[in-house]
Amino acid sequence: MGAPSIIERLGILADAAKYDASCASSGTAKRNSKGSAKGIGSTEGMGICHAYAPDGRCISLLKILLTNHCIFDCHYCVNRKSSNVRRARFTPQEVVDLTLSFYRRNYIEGLFLSSGIIKSSNHTMEQLVETARILREEHDFRGYIHLKTIPEADPELVHQAGLYADRVSINVELPTDSGLTRLAPDKDARQIEGAMGKVKNDVIEAKDARKRFRNAPRFAPAGQSTQMIVGADAATDADIVGKASRLYDNFRLRRVYYSAFSPIPDASAVLPLKRPPLIREHRLYQSDWLMRFYGYKPGEVMQATEADGNLPLDIDPKLAWALKFRERFPVDLNCASREEMLRVPGLGVKAVNKILASRRHRTLRLDDVALLTQSITKVRPFICTVDWRPVMLTDRADLRALLAPKQEQFELFTA
């Protein structure tokens, strides 16, 4: 049997990369090829298609592994050393050629490149850096590059990656140290966090240098991100929220991504037999949003969890918190602060900003609020206006059932 063609290898290595969710391209520096004789690519302007899958994953990047060969044996990974999967490998030049070819066809806006560990962590990191170097230096590529870095690699190699990439990321893999020790024996939590701390310091130093010297090199202008696997171990949502909060605070991460565990072929006996509900991943993203944009503290998000430490699946975390702290409601929209209104289920940041702007000119009525929000039914039990007061509605014992989205059974064959 001959060696697989580049198209066959692309199929294998693109499929192997699908488990990594941390590929969004937000926050990078603006660059384009105007004024350059040989530059190619752009992170802005016409021809850039930002496409997202229904579960929120970005699909506008060429997202592949350099190789799915790996010397590590992480139980949850389909590419682990003991896994019986078809293996493939690209050279750095082949990845460069694919990236440029896809970009010229307007299929992608950039490259997301990760890899299994081949030979050693340093050797693999050198290959990843070489790919980015060829794109930037030999082809003057101005598009987006996201490199998945390896915490076990030499810090200087990770630093070089940040000089070429817009964003770098290091996966913490699992929410708890005990889970990591049990399911990924080749990885070390302290080493991972040490590498993330080094990247954080490099980003800060590069920004400071840019303030003093205009031509100072950029270092990962889109920052760093990480990913946690949900449902592979016994960690609760409270554990995950607490871990994410510490990562944001300690390492100034741009994003923490969540990836629901997916059963893999020939799985280890220590792994669960079923994947967690995908809605659990969605609820964690919602809780992340509450902390980043709505002013909720991690402890408050944890208060929205059920007795088992997990967020409810039938309602969103914001509504779950409001139902537990009904004494904070109703909120008078004609005089409440922005922070108080952001706690109201059904009111998003844009709606609250519109309410603040509108009430400068008029006293708000319930009909006015209905024009500013998507679901006045969800909002009504938690607000007051000049013509509306919920009276006993806020304290109804069946309020959760009234506000929970109705479960709808879809039919395969409909008229």
From TrEMBL:
Pfam family, one: Radical_SAM
Superkingdom in the source lineage: Bacteria
A molecular function GO annotation: iron-sulfur cluster binding
The name this protein goes by in its record: Putative DNA modification/repair radical SAM protein
Cofactor(s) listed in the protein's UniProt record: [4Fe-4S] cluster
Organism (species): Qipengyuania oceanensis
InterPro entries per UniProt: Aldolase_TIM, DNA_rSAM_put, Elp3/MiaA/NifB-like_rSAM, Endo/Exo/Phosphatase_dom_1, rSAM, rSAM_sf, RuvA_2-like
Residue intervals of the Radical SAM core domain: 54-297
UniProt keywords, alphabetically: Iron, Iron-sulfur, Metal-binding, S-adenosyl-L-methionine
Organism ancestry: Bacteria, Pseudomonadati, Pseudomonadota, Alphaproteobacteria, Sphingomonadales
